[in-house]
C-alpha cells in the first residue's frame, strides 16, 4: 500500500475512461498504456483492464506478486487466463450485467433482418429497383442458442418473445430450469442442429468450445439455416463457414466477432454470400462506457470495504459460475462480448 493509505489502481487504457475521474479521492490511479503496463503492475493493488482487447498482459505480468484483483471491462475473460494469472491467488472479475440485453436485442435484429431480407431491400433501394418479394415469418421456427450463461439466456428469452422455439445449450445438461425446462449439454448439440432454423453462438471461449463450429457442425445443420456468432471468433472455423455459405449449405450468417480483429480489409469474409459483418459491437450501446464504470466502481466499493466481490471468474472453467436462486439451475455459464 502507498503511504497515503489509498489503494493503487492501474487502469489499462490508451485514452482516459470515465472511471478514472470517478475514482478521485478513493484511489491513487495509474492510467497506463501497454508500454507502461509492466511498471504499473509492480505497484498496483488492482488492475482494471479497460482496453479489454489487449494482448499485452501476459508479457507484462510480474514474475512475483502482482495485483490482488484484476477486473476486465468485458464479459469474456479468455485473454486474461494465461498461466501465471490463472495459477496465482489474484481474483479475476468481469462485467457481467452490462451486455446481456443489448446483445439479445442485436441478435433479434439480425434474425429479423435475415428473415425479412432487409439487406436485399437496401441493395434494391440503392439501385432504385422496385421489386416486390415475399419474406419469412420467424414465429414457429426453431433456434438453438449455444451458451447457457446470462447472454445466451437473454438471447433465448427474447427470441422466444418473437415466437421462436428456443433450445438452450450449456456446458452440462440439466432439467427443471425455471425458464427453459430442459437445458441441453454440449454433447446434445449435434442432435439439435438438423432441426434448427437458426443457430446462435453465445458461448465463452474455452478449450472445450474452441472451433466447435466447423465443417462437421455446418454439415449437420438444415440446408438453408442461418448462423449467428456473438461469442468469440475462435469458436468458428471461418474457412468452413465460408465453404458452407458458398455451397448454399447455410442460407446466411452474421458474425460480430472474428479470429482476427479488426477484420483485415483483404479477408474473404467481407464478400461472402449472405454474410452480415459487424465490428464486435453487439453489446455496445450509447451508455455502455458509463455502465462498465458503474460495474467496476460498485465492486471497488465492496473490495475497499472487505466485502465479497461480484462476478468472480472461475479461472479453471473460464467464466463466472452463478449460484442459482431457489428453484433455478445451480450454475450457468457467462457469455462473452
TrEMBL record:
<protein>
    <submittedName>
        <fullName>D-2-hydroxyacid dehydrogenase</fullName>
    </submittedName>
</protein>
<dbReference type="GO" id="GO:0016616">
    <property type="term" value="F:oxidoreductase activity, acting on the CH-OH group of donors, NAD or NADP as acceptor"/>
</dbReference>
<keyword id="KW-0520">NAD</keyword>
<dbReference type="InterPro" id="IPR029753">
    <property type="entry name" value="D-isomer_DH_CS"/>
</dbReference>
<dbReference type="InterPro" id="IPR036291">
    <property type="entry name" value="NAD(P)-bd_dom_sf"/>
</dbReference>
<keyword id="KW-0560">Oxidoreductase</keyword>
<dbReference type="InterPro" id="IPR006140">
    <property type="entry name" value="D-isomer_DH_NAD-bd"/>
</dbReference>
<dbReference type="Pfam" id="PF02826">
    <property type="entry name" value="2-Hacid_dh_C"/>
</dbReference>
<dbReference type="GO" id="GO:0051287">
    <property type="term" value="F:NAD binding"/>
</dbReference>
<feature type="domain" description="D-isomer specific 2-hydroxyacid dehydrogenase NAD-binding">
    <location>
        <begin position="109"/>
        <end position="282"/>
    </location>
</feature>
Amino acid at each position: 500500500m502507498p503511504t497515503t493509505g489509498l489503494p493503487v489502481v492501474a487502469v489499462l487504457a490508451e485514452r482516459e475512461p470515465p472511471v478514472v475521474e470517478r475514482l478521485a479521492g478513493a484511489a491513487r490511479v495509474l492510467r497506463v498504456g501497454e508500454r507502461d503496463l509492466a511498471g504499473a503492475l509492480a505497484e498496483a493493488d488492482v488492475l482494471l483492464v479497460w482496453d479489454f482487447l489487449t494482448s499485452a498482459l501476459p508479457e507484462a505480468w510480474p514474475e512475483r506478486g502482482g495485483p490482488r484483483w484484476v477486473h476486465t471491462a468485458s464479459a469474456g475473460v479468455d485473454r486474461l487466463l494465461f498461466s501465471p494469472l490463472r495459477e496465482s491467488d489474484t481474483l479475476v472479475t468481469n462485467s457481467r450485467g452490462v451486455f446481456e440485453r443489448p446483445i439479445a436485442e442485436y441478435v433479434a435484429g439480425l434474425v429479423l433482418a435475415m428473415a425479412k431480407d432487409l439487406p436485399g431491400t437496401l441493395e434494391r433501394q440503392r439501385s432504385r429497383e422496385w421489386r416486390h418479394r415475399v419474406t419469412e415469418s420467424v414465429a414457429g421456427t426453431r433456434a438453438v442458442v449455444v451458451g447457457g450463461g446470462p447472454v445466451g439466456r437473454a438471447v433465448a428469452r427474447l427470441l422466444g418473445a418473437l415466437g421462436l422455439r428456443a433450445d438452450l445449450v450449456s456446458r452440462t445438461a440439466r432439467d427443471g430450469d425455471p425458464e427453459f425446462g430442459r437445458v441441453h449439454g454440449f454433447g446434445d448439440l449435434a442432435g439439435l442442429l438438423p432441426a434448427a432454423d437458426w443457430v446462435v453462438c453465445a458461448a465463452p471461449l474455452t478449450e472445450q468450445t474452441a472451433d466447435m463450429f466447423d465443417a462437421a457442425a455446418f454439415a449437420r445443420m438444415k440446408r438453408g439455416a442461418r448462423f449467428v456468432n456473438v461469442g468469440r471468433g475462435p469458436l468458428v472455423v471461418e474457412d468452413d463457414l465460408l465453404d458452407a455459405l458458398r455451397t448454399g449449405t447455410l442460407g446466411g450468417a452474421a458474425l460480430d466477432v472474428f479470429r482476427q480483429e479488426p477484420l483485415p480489409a483483404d479477408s474473404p469474409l467481407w464478400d461472402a454470400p449472405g454474410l452480415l459483418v459487424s465490428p464486435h459491437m453487439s453489446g455496445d450501446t450509447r451508455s455502455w462506457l458509463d455502465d462498465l464504470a458503474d460495474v467496476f466502481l460498485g465492486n471497488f466499493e465492496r473490495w475497499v470495504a472487505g466485502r465479497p466481490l461480484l462476478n468472480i471468474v472461475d479461472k479453471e472453467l473460464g467464466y463466472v459460475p452463478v449460484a442459482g436462486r431457489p428453484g433455478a439451475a445451480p450454475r450457468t455459464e457467462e457469455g462473452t462480448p
